Amino acid sequence: xxxxxxxxxxxxxxxxxxxxxxxxxxxxxxxxxxxxxxxxxxxxxxxxxxxxxxxxxxxxxxxxxxxxxxxxxxxxxxxxxxxxxxxxxxxxxxxxxxxxxxxxxxxxxxxxxxxxxxxxxxxxxxxxxxxxxxxxxxxxxxxxxxxxxxxxxxxxxxxxxxxxxxxxxxxxxxxxxxxxxxxxxxxxxxxxxxxxxxxxxxxxxxxxxxxxxxxxxxxxxxxxxxxxxxxxxxxxxxxxxxxxxxxxxxxxxxxxxxxxxxxxxxxxxxxxxxxxxxxxxxxxxxxxxxxxxxxxxxxxxxxxxxxxxxxxxxxxxxxxxxxxxxxxxxxxxxxxxxxxxxxxxxxx
Length: 348
Description:
The protein has helices at 3-7, 12-23, 79-91, 133-150, 167-183, 189-197, 199-207, 243-250, 255-269, 278-297, 322-334, and strands at 28-34, 43-49, 55-63, 101-106, 113-118, 124-125, 163-164, 210-213, 222-225, 228-231, 238-241. It is of the alpha+beta class. It is globular and about 70 Å long. Residues 1-7 have low confidence and may be disordered.
């Protein structure tokens, strides 16, 4: 954990007060260890004892909203207060398996929100089970079932806090990628064409029945314990096309496992038969993710209003990972947005 992150962890006395408030019982801290998987916001694993003698192992995450940047609210992440709302209003009231949500606490001194969750002992991240087709299939079924049930709850007032992906959101990533492509037009002019035509398939994503998505349903955000799936890190929850979560789950996996996950997802999301446009929607979702990743990999170039797209700081070199460009090219051709007969370099 970085020194910056460590400096934001509450001291033991403050932690004791906060947990006592959330758990509604005197909480005595027995042990705390840094969370090896902490990323944007600091978190730790806390063992405490309640007034009745019961011991709990908790995952405590501390932070505020993301700054208005490529990873901020105008991007796709909402921060710790937003994630706490997702647990309170979406996950806790669903039948989905997730770590138990004990509550949230506002630290008046720092302004940070604490997210207090059950710590899942003996759990394994899906990314460490890459060869397991069965595990991937279970993860695909979990998210398909979740999409099926939450689709029916979108009219609930409790869901209104969720971000909604609209045409402007999707096109914003294509426009930012186009700015990057403009700097590379002498090598990858097809990328500029692809960005300009992305609008042609955004309608596919908007036509998909909206549901609550995880937003970053990558194998690193899926825990397994005793054969049960527990997705974590819900900072990017939103109302959007469910195909986005399937796209993140299967990104960079082999074709055989991808197809297995697609079939498992469709069986539980649409028991009576999947929509005719499912394949193209999934392809469009994968294209959107490639735009988002390319912008993220070049986030140091975006200055000023950040996610708004201008201006760009060209003092940094544009990063163009060959595999990213290869994926963009392939998806663009599959969707018919660019031709397959161009002799321009696809990335090197």
